[in-house]
Amino acid sequence: MNIVMFLAPFSLGLGLIAVAAFWWSLKAGQYEDPAGDAARILVEDPEDRPG
Amino acid sequence: MALIGDAVRADLGAFLKAHKEGGPTLDLLVPDVRCAGCMSKIEREVSALPDVAAARLNLTQKRLAVTFRSDAGDPGAVVAALTRLGYPATPFDPGAAREAHDREGRQLVLALAVAGFGAMNTMMFSVPIWAGLFGQELGPATRTLMMWFSGIVGAPCAIYAGLPFFRSAWRSLKARRANMDVPITVGVLLTLAISFSETILGGRDAYFDAAVSLLFLLLIGRWLEHRLRARASSAAADLLALQAPTATVLGPDDELIARPLADVQPGDRLLLRPGERVPVDSRVLSGASELDNGLLTGETVPVAVRLGSVCRAGALNLSGALRLVAMARSEDSAVAAIARLVEAGAQSRSRYVRLADKAAAIYVPVVHTVALLTFLGGWAVGLGPREALIRAVAVLIVTCPCALGLAVPAVQITASSRLFRRGVLVKSGAALERLAEVDHVIFDKTGVLTLGYPRLLNPMSSPVKMAAPLARASSHPLARTLAAEAGAGPLADDVVEFPGQGVEGTIGGRRARLGRAQFVGVDTAGAQTEIWFGFEGETKIRFRFADTLRPDVAGVVASLMARGLTVEVLSGDLAGPVAHAAEMAGIAEWRAGCTPQDKAARIDELSRAGRKVLMVGDGLNDAGALAKAHAAMAPGTALEASQNAADLVFSGERLAPVVEAIEVAESARRRALENFGFAALYNALAAPAAILGLVNPFVAAIAMSGSSLVVTLNALRTGLRR
Known about the structure:
The structure holds 2 protein chains of 2 kinds. Helices cover 65% and strands 0% of the residues of chain A. Chain A is mostly helical. The longest helix of chain A has 26 residues, at 2-27. Chain A is elongated and about 60 Å long. By secondary structure, chain B is of the alpha+beta class. Among the domains of chain B are: 1-92, Alpha-Beta Plaits (2-Layer Sandwich); 245-278 and 280-329, Distorted Sandwich (Calcium-transporting ATPase, cytoplasmic transduction domain A); 424-452 and 550-663, HAD superfamily/HAD-like (Rossmann fold); 453-548, Calcium-transporting ATPase, cytoplasmic domain N, CATH 3.40.1110.10. Chain B has 24 helices and 26 strands. In chain B, the strands form 5 sheets. A 7-stranded mixed β-sheet of chain B has the order 14-26-25-24-15-22-23, with helices on both faces. Chain B has a 6-stranded antiparallel β-sheet with strand order 6-5-7-13-8-11, with no helix packed on it. Mean pLDDT of chain B is 79; it is low at 1-10. Chains A and B meet through α1 and α2 of A and α2, α4 and α5 of B.
């Protein structure tokens, strides 16, 4: 039974990390331009082109 | 295009914003970007301009943010570069209001995240407890431990995620009303309290997970509603930014300064080129021209203005450049009388009770009475106060208006997304509800039944081609229409523009003139809606223009009538053109020469007779009627005041969006009523079960999420094309 005392806080910690990560992504403006982010992946960066 | 071309010439310094770090920034609206290719092309070209430090395009909002290296940066060059690439752009000011709105949205999303975390993690501890309910091995000590865990995680999350509801419930109670948030608040707080007391007393019914997941589901509904409002307001702001960006103010040395409308002060000297709209009420200092007051009064016959004439804001300058002196600020301009009508209308509209609030008015007292009776009745038949209270709480939980809270917002966001894709902007959910009830439609003529701008009546290609080089060089609206008809091509040489008369230039070595009849050398009393063209000493050609009906008017009117709606035209124009337009559209009932007050009075008369009127109008003279009508639509070309007074704004040349909006609004109403019906059925089954003590935390969790899921799926049907 003692394992519960370890696992329960551990899983809560994981959950809190997920909430913190979401909060950070919200703050960092990652949901400001979903269409643009999807399109940017298709744009070739001139510097990245293999020589 | 007029605005864009002029913006290049004028100084756009007014739109530069000082940034905290680095150079000043400029925000531009670029409505035509669609794909990744456009995006990379624009960013590459604009970044390559001298003095530009960075350019980033937001493809979702179609906005380009440009950062300059120093104060010497030239916004005009950016706009010119974009125009050259084929993407007309307009500077705009995002404004502080939207920032505040956005903060509310972020708080909601954060509350949603916390509720989601709470729901999942509380559920994790609930599962072993539920397992215990079905006879699996779970000692009382372990069960109590699990209940403590779920309480410690669930309660703080529920308190934080519930704050938006608690605040709203408190506000509504202070106003001595009960909205849907009151039972939510009572339910959540009572549930938390009972669950804690059960945990302490070693009972087996703890509803922490139910309280949090309830809030999670409700917050989804709340957030959807917020998204709807936020998107509508930003799209409306974009439309207006495209329409009336700046006034051109003359500086002390006659230099041109572009200034946002709100910053124009009385006494400022303004330059008004042909094709521009009068920015604020003003008087003519020099120059002569004709003004089209169509948007203000509905009249299509231009009015001549000269030194000392008063120009009202919103009028379109047709022929010559004018110098004006501003007489009023933008907010005070020309709209004072109409603003009063709008205000009166807005008041009557705010008395409208929304569907969800109607449902809440029935639901709240019923549920609370049932819960109270369960407690008292249970106690009376000998259950003991503790068991009776648990049953009362179970009633509150299973009947908590999850499904009701999602029922309407989910339907309305899918309905408005569907309309948004078809070019119709819905400003609020209430607008859709009102639109569904409409039984009488009133159209304005100019700009609604008609396109609101002149079109060439005799588009024979060879004369048009002949005149096009001169037309391209002119800024007169009719010449521009002619040039647009001809498409791209060569420009005439040695062009001289005679204000109020026409243009003269050399095409292929021969002098030619384009303009009024007398100017070109024809001896007739030329009407305002025609221009003449001719080479020196040759036959003159006449181009006639008219404001034509939207292409699908007759079909739209017919399908409105087929739906059992009655249709009417109210116009400020003269009887002749109104009768003609009404006849072409197939509308029997029309009135001409209406003042703004007449229009508003007609709507009052109809609503007193119990009719629900949809007003479709674009002019300032319609603003009062738009605000008074049960529902209102305006085309995207309408003036700011009219767009503000309207519930829905549609774009494009077709009138079909009106029918489509009514169709979608009706189907949204049907879906919402179905959802209410389902929620009522669910409560009719769940409440008796809870009263009889058949509901435990496991059943509550399944029932609650199941009913929300059904309601949401039903709402999504609105988005499907049939």
